[in-house]
Model the fold of this input.
Amino acid sequence: MMLRFGLMVASLMLLAATPSLARPIPPGGVTADEVAAALRDKGYKAEITKDAEGDPKVESGADGTPFAVAFYDCKNSRCASVQFVAAFDLKNGLTYSDINAWNRKNRFGKGHLDDEMDPFLEYGVDFEVGATTEAVGNAIEVWVAVLPIFKTHVGFK
Done:
């Protein structure tokens, strides 16, 4: 009897320690509210705005760097994909060789140069089918992990 009670207590403790399960996101993608909530859950600010075309945009920041989350292929407030974007204004810009070196060595987060040769980083994620709240959180974790590595690569202080 004591063994059974002990096993039951141990089982309940394991359940209490288990993180909440991922919730599915309806087909069609994520909403700006869902992405903003995921950012806030991870301790980041999140302000929902709109881009020049009227699509949703979430403005946030990590590692001292402001970034935006742009939404694409939106229908009825659900958007099939998002793109995390951060831009860096450098005094002397970068070379194509520098940004190409980043892209060759790094799978997540693609670097580009604007018309002034300043670097920016993008990370696109598809949430159209089969996404979960856990997948959104994971995308945020990947983004905030890549961001400081990119900043170091481009020499942004």
User: Anything to note?
Assistant: The chain is about 35% helix and 30% strand. The chain has one domain: 23-154. The first helix runs from residue 2 to 17.
